[in-house]
Amino acid sequence: MKDTMLAVPDRNRPLAIKLAACSAALLLVALSTAVGLYLASRWGNSPVVMLYLLPVLAAAIYGGLGPGLVAAVASALAYNYWFTAPLHTFVIHEAADIVTVVVLFLGGRGVQPACRIGAKAGAARFAARSAQCGYSRLRPPSAFSAKRSAGGRSERPAACPAV
Predict the structure, then answer these.
(1) Residue 21: domain span
(2) CA proximity to 3, closest of 161, 131, 122
(3) 105-126: buried (b, 16+ CB within 10 Å) or exposed (e) per residue?
(4) Number of domains present in the structure of the chain
(5) % of residues, the chain, pLDDT over 90
(6) CA 37, CA 71: separation in Å to the nearest integer?
(7) Is the pTM of this model over 0.85?
(8) Do you find a cis peptide bond into 86, omega within 30 degrees of 0?
(9) Has residue 157 been placed in a domain?
(10) How many Cβ atoms are within 10 Å of 72's Cβ, its own excluded?
(11) Residue 72 is assigned to a structural domain of this protein
(12) Within the chain, what is the greatest distance between any pair of CA atoms?
């Protein structure tokens, strides 16, 4: 079931699901900021940028392009505001920090094609498994019963789940 959910394009999802995915992306960025503030006092700002990659990747993989971009923009802005000098402004004085913020932003867009390929591969695996097991995409697998041979054993291949 997870394979088919990832294969739904962003434009075909209901607005409520899009908003929920964007909200979850923003929540993950806020959580990353809180953890980053805790870690920055002990280890400095360098490892904090890695924390912001997690919400960007998660939002792009599970939410699609829109939530991935929301997480990328929010991560870039949060990192810039909380961890680059001068603090608590959106001004960047060092070239290395500019590169970091740009890479955070581009990460959300760059991971989307990989997610789309993964979703298509998952949908293809699901379709192949369904065809091998004799399931139809029109009905869930639970609506089918296994065909029994004369010996009482199922004729379904071993790779097919029991229904």
Answers:
(1) 2-143
(2) 122
(3) bebbeebbeebbeebeebbeeb
(4) 1
(5) 17
(6) 18
(7) no
(8) yes
(9) no
(10) 29
(11) yes
(12) 78
